[in-house]
Specification:
This protein is α/β, with parallel strands linked by helices and 380 residues long. The protein folds into two domains: 247 residues, Rossmann fold (3-Layer(aba) Sandwich); 99 residues, CBS-domain. Helix content is 35%, strand content 23%. Strands 6-7-8-3-9-10 form a six-stranded mixed beta sheet, sandwiched between helices. A four-stranded antiparallel beta sheet has the order 2-1-4-5, covered by helices on one side. Strands 11-12-13 form a three-stranded mixed beta sheet. Helix 3 packs across helix 4, helix 3 runs parallel beside helix 5 and helix 4 crosses helix 5. 40% of the residues are buried. The C terminus is likely disordered. The structure holds adenosine-5'-triphosphate.
Length: 380
């Protein structure tokens, strides 16, 4: 756990970069600091590993006051990843990754073996081991930066815009790999970004900072998108936050309507009698949907598999509202199919119903916002 307790940083020229900042970054979780340029994100991050000393206040690393730990000892337990990876240009990739363990006394051979394993973990082919940083793409260099920070197996990782120097496609890949790695390693991570989408995708919790180093809101991604505490946060997270918030809300929270089904082999005439707007859902005997039948196009006789429209996606009740919306939009009947996690039909929803849910969420957020004058929850 890392805890900021009323931390302030005033630079010698008088700039107040961080103002009375208090928040807790829980152990094993990703806390993201976001906010506009100059709001004090990097200053906050660098105070944790004492590259910058606070003017007042205390930063606690578990139950230890960081200012009472020697900077060298402190940094051994804290990996640090920066934009453009900050690799040593004249060292090979494997030696870049092995730098810290070798400095800490691990025999070179052993450190290099461990570095090769780490390279694989972050998705880098070991064939790059003997290349130099300039011979790697931006995305590959970022991976080396992450591998290097992980090399001494620190419990804490600080990451300053670690994915910002690469194009959006590579960035999305790095995000996925990073989340997979974190689910294995469970590090305590504090990451800085100016990109709210990145924060929402990666953060277990997000701290939104305002220029002057004020904490505007500390919340989970879902809460931030649905309940911004003030206009600054609402503007920062953006107008399309309703759509983004769909990625967090379970589709199980949607009211579904019972949907009639028939099985393969049923008579098309019987299916036609049950169809709504010409479409009937065909399911197997376990109640698992197989596809849609258009009864006005189907020839008389038995319902066969080759008559089914299978294009529409199906959303599981433990999936997200976004997946439910995709299911409604891709369904030939316009009705999105919601199933249990085992694939058994629960019922259907329409796109309008999903959109109504978004509007209600946004309305709730506005009501709550106007009734709360102060940024409740801004600190903890
Ligand atoms: N060494 C310094 N001396 C004086 N002012 C500084 C110094 N370093 C940073 N600042 C100022 O402190 C404020 C916070 O800077 P910081 O780099 O922490 O912001 P940031 O949120 O990380 O910005 P960005 O997203 O642009 O990197 C800014 O106004 C910056 O100009």
């Amino acid at each position: 756990m890392i805890r900021f307790d009323s931390v302030t940083k005033r630079y010698p020229d008088g700039t107040l970069a961080v103002d009375d900042l208090s928040f807790t970054a829980p152990t094993g979780k990703i806390t993201v600091l976001v906010g506009p340029s100059g709001c004090g994100k990097t200053t906050s991050l660098r105070m944790i590993n004492r590259l910058i000393e606070p003017t007042s206040g205390t930063i606690w690393i578990d139950d230890r006051d960081a200012s009472q730990i020697s900077a060298t000892q402190l940094r051994r337990g804290i990996g640090y990843v920066i934009q453009h990876a900050g690799l040593f240009p004249h060292r090979t990739i494997v030696d870049n990754v092995a730098t810290v363990p070798i400095l800490l006394g691990t025999p070179k051979k052993q450190a290099r073996m461990a570095a090769l394993e780490l390279m694989e973990r972050v998705g880098l082919d070991p064939m790059f081991a003997n290349r130099y940083p300039a011979q790697l793409s931006g995305g590959q260099q970022q991976r080396v930066g992450v591998a290097r920070a992980l090399a001494s197996d620190p419990p804490v990782m600080l990451m300053d815009e670690p994915f910002s120097a690469v194009d959006p496609v590579v960035r999305a890949q790095l995000h996925e790999e990073f989340l997979r790695l974190q689910s294995d390693l469970g590090k305590t991570i504090i990451m800085v970004t100016h990109d709210i989408d990145e924060a929402v995708k990666l953060g277990d919790q997000i701290a939104v900072l305002q220029v002057g180093g004020h904490l505007a809101q500390l919340a989970s991604p879902h809460e931030l998108l649905t309940r911004p505490v003030n206009d600054f946060v609402a503007d920062f997270v953006g107008r399309d936050r309703g759509y983004r918030s769909l990625s967090f809300e379970k589709s199980g929270s949607l009211p579904t309507r019972g949907e009639p089904t028939v099985e393969l082999g049923s008579e098309v005439s019987a299916a036609r009698a049950l169809a709504i707007d010409d479409w009937i859902l065909v399911a197997n005997s376990d109640g698992k949907p197989l596809g849609w039948l258009c009864t006005s196009l189907a020839p008389a006789g038995a319902v066969r598999e080759d008559m089914l429209f299978r294009g529409g996606t199906i959303a599981a009740s433990d999936g997200t509202l976004r997946q439910a919306l995709d299911a409604t939009l891709s369904s030939p009947s316009g009705r999105g199919v919601i199933v249990t996690p085992d694939g058994v039909l629960i019922g259907t929803v329409t796109a309008t119903e999903v959109v109504e849910r978004i509007t209600t969420n946004a309305g709730d957020a506005r009501a709550e916002h106007s009734s709360s004058g102060s940024p409740a929850g801004a600190t903890q």
